[in-house]
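Lab notebook, bench 4. The sequencing result for the construct came back, and we need a structural model before the next group meeting so we can plan mutations. Quick request posted to the team channel:

Model the 3D structure of this chain.
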Amino acid sequence: MDGDYFYNYQSKVHNPANSDLTRMANVANSRNMVFVPVISPDKNAGGDGITWWEEQDRNGDWFREYANWFINATGTDRNNIWTIGYSGGAEFETFRTRCRPPNIMA
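Done. Here's the predicted structure in token form:
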């Protein structure tokens, strides 16, 4: 989950050729893992920009729904899910995917 930004060009996840994303994907691939960058559902760049942490409850519901869809669609073992976030994405990951039920991770 990316940090906060005002414009798509400021976000790594909106630029799949970004060298940071490429390196993270290569590390995941070397460990036989799948790397899935997820774009915040926030569309309002006003205020603090596009964030994960504003509207945390709504974004948390959206993320859990997406994660469950992805897990079911791909047959991914939910016992082997890793999440990472940067800046506001890390804050969201900490407070909404790990601490609040329903926890998508086993």
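The helical segments are 19-30, 56-74, 88-98.
Will bring this to the meeting.
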